[in-house]
Specification:
The complex is a heterodimer. Chain A has 16 helices and eleven strands. By secondary structure, chain A is of the alpha/beta class. Chain B is built from three helices and two strands. The chains are: A alpha/beta, B mainly alpha.
Chain lengths: ~475, ~100
């Protein structure tokens, strides 16, 4: 018996009686038991609760009741998203003692849909990194090649799906933290439009850029999960009220033809230095879409070359503010016993609690926001953010979507970039502009003869219907 | 950026940074700031003020309790604290005068 690859397959198997929810959970738990000691995708596994929930669904199935689409779907959750009563550490010593006292809105919605939460997954501390090597609980390894990283920061989530330790997962994406690990492990990763999904209950890294999204094996599964978690949340001011046209339309995504669509290829992303293996793979993707009648057009996103430096001003500025709350007094790790005065409590707790990358970004953020440098850095970056957004608006007046590689190369080896922050930051070179502009992006596995490669599609704000239609059409053609 | 600048930033951010790490950060920041400096190439300026399409603030009315919190939130918070007394959280004394 093998684990189904898609939610649709699973739903069919549950409802024709060929698989019981408890059988699937036992397969998943067995995969975790075998693989997790090496891969380190999970920081905590909820085996007992998952078994109880699956057995309840067994009874429902036995009684002849139809299971809803997401009922019994085993999912992992990035350990930066709160689950009531469960430890939520953000893979930091700072929050190692912290237990959540409420559900994030996305968890509440998935719980109501009948999803089974299998466990919490590892990440770069406070979602800061591109390799999941910055975790206080050890690095996660790539299930495809354990000598290599799974990407980050949601590397545990990506590895759990790629290693058949979950059928889907939730991660968060601030500069590429869903799409980059999805590309490096060979799964689908979707970053929705900023505001489409409530961030209530997500530990904030950079609040104007963070967005929760799913990891799955197919674009259609990503659509099902996004539909379950999208929409306005009265508990979160930045969550958007979606118009009927903006709401996901699954029948349309499944059936719409892509032959009338135009995809833009930004010339700034297809430069000479691109890895030939990735270039060849992307050419094959373009050929597949061309065979479906899609038209391609060269476009320009001139300010995208400034996306990484812009990101490394805006993001640490917000990090330094968001992480100021971790002071050894209110929650998490405290060094009050060893401190001589209040200031000493703050300093010692933060020194012990934060890892190197978090400290680096807090200091960088403090610098760019400090008196005398604010205008030169932060104000300048906000200007360029507006120009990057304008680039995309102009591009989407000409094309329906934009296609690029997700990453500049395939998964690198563990330890290869840990002492070179700039090299690590450049891992997100193709993904950060999406967050800066607030638009949706998806990474989908591309053809490869070796390590996984991903291609990225982007569309205008709240046009996830076109994004997922294109993703599904590609997968149907190459038979994923 | 000098090592003393890193120490000053650490003081502003309420973090103790050991001496050897200050040197490492100093080198990192030099590279990062050099990379960020490419933004000075951009001379075009645009309006960055947010465009509000509708009133985003709620009416000032009393709301029911936060529905995200379960009815036993009070007990959960107390249970999560190392020390409690008469339904209050006991915290360390941080000021002695």
């Amino acid at each position: 018996m093998s684990t189904p690859l898609s939610i649709t397959d699973l739903h069919t198997e549950f409802n024709n009686g060929s698989k019981k929810p408890s059988e699937l959970i036992e397969e998943i738990l067995s995969n975790i038991e075998q693989s997790n000691p090496e891969i380190n995708a999970y920081t905590e596994v909820f085996a007992d609760e998952a078994r109880v929930q699956a057995q309840e669904l067994d009874h429902k199935q036995k009684a002849g009741q139809e299971l809803r689409l997401l009922e019994g779907v085993p999912m992992s959750i990035k350990d930066a998203i709160l689950i009531d009563g469960k430890k939520t550490t953000a893979s930091s010593l700072m929050l190692e003692p912290y237990t959540a006292v409420y559900d994030a809105t996305v968890i509440k919605k998935l719980r109501e849909a009948g999803v089974i939460f299998v466990g919490k997954t590892n990440l770069d501390e406070f979602a800061m990194g591109s390799s999941t090597e910055n975790s206080a609980f050890g690095p996660t390894k790539n299930p495809v090649d354990p000598a290599r990283v799974p990407g980050g920061s949601s590397g545990g989530s990506a590895a759990s799906v790629a290693g058949s330790m979950a059928l889907a997962s939730l991660g968060s994406d601030t500069g590429g933290s869903i799409r980059q690990p999805a590309a490096l492990t060979g799964v689908v990763g979707l970053k929705p439009t900023y505001g489409r999904v409530s961030r209530f209950g997500l530990i904030a890294m950079a609040s104007s850029l963070d967005q929760i999204g799913p990891f799955t094996n197919t674009s259609l599964d990503a659509a099902y999960l996004l539909q379950a978690i999208e929409g306005h949340d009265e508990l979160y001011a930045t969550s958007a009220t979606l118009t009927p046209e903006q709401l996901l339309d699954i029948p349309k995504i499944k059936e719409a033809k892509v032959s009338q669509m135009t995809i833009g290829l930004p010339k700034e992303y297809f430069i000479d230095g691109i890895d030939p293996e990735i270039r060849t793979s992307i050419d094959q993707v373009i050929a597949t879409y061309t065979s479906l009648g899609v038209t391609f057009k060269e476009i320009t996103l001139p300010y995208s070359q400034y996306a990484i430096p812009t990101y490394y001003i805006l993001m640490p500025a917000e990090v330094s503010s968001n992480l100021a709350r971790f002071d050894g007094i209110r929650y998490g790790l405290s060094k009050a016993e060893e401190a001589e005065n209040l200031l000493d409590v703050y300093k010692k707790s933060r020194m012990e609690g934060f890892g190197d990358e978090s400290t680096r970004r807090i200091l960088l953020g403090t610098y760019v926001l400090s008196s005398g440098y604010y205008d030169a850095y932060y104000s300048k970056a906000k200007q360029i953010q507006a120009l990057i957004r304008r680039d995309f608006e102009q591009a989407f007046s000409e094309v329906d979507a934009i296609l690029t590689p997700t990453t500049p190369h395939t998964a690198f080896k563990l330890g290869e970039k840990t002492n070179d922050p700039i090299s690590m930051y450049l891992e997100d070179i193709f993904t950060v502009a999406t967050n800066i502009a607030g638009i949706p992006g998806i990474s989908i596995p591309a053809p490869t003869k070796g390590l996984p490669i991903g291609f990225q599609l982007m569309t205008k704000h709240f046009d996830e219907n076109s994004l997922l239609t294109l993703g599904n059409a590609y997968e149907q053609t190459v038979k994923i | 950026m000098k090592s003393s600048d890193v120490k000053h930033l650490a003081d502003l951010a309420y973090i103790t940074v050991p001496d050897e790490q200050q040197t490492a950060f100093e080198q990192d920041f030099e590279g990062i700031l050099e990379h960020i400096a490419t933004l000075t190439e951009v001379s075009e300026e645009v309006d960055t003020l947010p465009q509000y399409y509708h009133q985003t603030l709620r009416e000032d009315i009393q709301q029911p309790r936060n529905p995200a919190f379960s009815s036993d939130i009070h007990d959960k918070l107390l249970k999560g604290m190392p020390e409690t007394e008469n339904d209050y959280l006991v915290v360390k004394t941080i000021l002695t005068k």
